[in-house]
Amino acid sequence: MKIKILEDKKIIISNPGSMHNYFGWPTIEKLRDNRIAVSASGFRIAHLCPFGKAVMAVSADEGKSFSAPQVVIDTPLDDRDAGLCAFGKSGLIVTSFNNTRAAQRGWTTFVHYNKKKPEKTVNYINAYLDNVTDEQEEKYLGSTFRVSFDNGTTFGDIYKSPVTSPHGPIELMDGSILWVGQTFNKTGAGIMKKDCICAAKLCVNTGKVEIIGEIENIEIDGIRALSCEPYAIQLPDGKIVCHIRVEIHNADKKVFTVFQSESTDGGITWTKPRQLLDTLGGSPAHLMLHSSGTLLSLYGYRERPFGIKAMASVDGANSWDIDNVVCEHNVHEDLGYPTSVELSDGSIYTVFYARPKEDESASIYGIRWSFEL
Questions:
Q1: Which of 67, 110, 113, 339 has its CA 20 to 30 A from that of 310?
Q2: Cα–Cα nearest to 7, from 349, 335, 342, 298
Q3: CB neighbours of 47 closer than 8 A, spacing ≥ 6?
Q4: CB neighbours of 225 closer than 8 A, spacing ≥ 6?
């Protein structure tokens, strides 16, 4: 695949001049009125902190300009990621998830003792967490989402889901909403334990989410890997393809790659996941079907030179042309989570998060490109 950059990467969402200037884990989606929405976790001060909010900016000119980010989900906890799913004639789902107070305190202590955060910042974070009650954590902890029926102008109540994923659910051809995500539960240590990857159906009218299927856990050389952050897409023949972030980080083995699983019965049963990229090939991935019939999957690459890569399939995800560089961003490994939409001229607009400089907070970037096979 040959990639041509039509408009170089530029920052589209940030909050300069404020300590709350960290934005990450974006999703882009074309709304039913043809505007483009970009969501992210924003107004943060760090990769993990209690100040994250799920925000959304909108473009009416195909990415040439964006509105200021507006807050959609803001619980007392750290609202992370921000998925988008347009549905029906004017529907939009915004998703997020959060961590316990204990997890946030643990991370804050870790980065402080590694001299990455000054004591006054640690005190600032802990002072906020001191005011979050047990009752608030119990009420809001989990995978959250809100539903709009007017293209994101207004939203209903915050609902909770048994599964979570960075980019949210998808609308199937029959109009139903399928959410492939990882399940999780609160443990005694206050950490969110990811159990497995499941498929669930979401009812937009009631907010009910029901698990219907499960993807087999992945082992590499006898080690159970962490399977997380999946994204699925339905192809014209009805097959659902899911790409899964798979990783292992221990003294003997390091893995950071993408596996693929498929379903032909609407998400009830799934094939055994198979590895697509090299051991440190990159992740997580987001799938998009181009009008040419080419299936694209973009993913972050966290080895030098850091950046965004794409793989392409012309045979329904049976085989892939991998490791095509969309852009390099050789600043810091804290980057990725690319998602894409096709514009009216057939070009592609991709958003991702990255740091402008090594010692600066992350921002949301956009880049427009095209490809030839």
A1: 67
A2: 349
A3: 22, 24, 107, 334, 362
A4: 217, 218, 219, 246, 247, 248, 255
